[in-house]
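Case study 2.
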Amino acid sequence: MIIYNVTTSVDHAIDEKWLEWMRNSHIPEVMQTNMFTGYKFLKLLTDQEDSTGKTYAVQYFCDNLEKYQKYQRLYAPKLQADVKSKFGEQCLSFRTLLEVI
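Prediction:
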């Protein structure tokens, strides 16, 4: 199994709005691509000294690398652009790809 992990630092000023949007819009849109079998939405509990907000991670579960690559080709650019246009620099993400061994 492949895990596509998106970790995001969210400015305090938009935290509640971002959480609502993630739960009600973004995550459902990602799941509607049918490239992932499930997900977990997590909040980082460890404080970061230089943080101006909260940090979250979404882990999307994928059966294989081919489906992940298809997601990246067909869906990710639009979905990532939507985040950028809605929240700009108030939320910053980095992405990692993991394999369950």
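The helical segments are 15-31, 65-74, 76-87.
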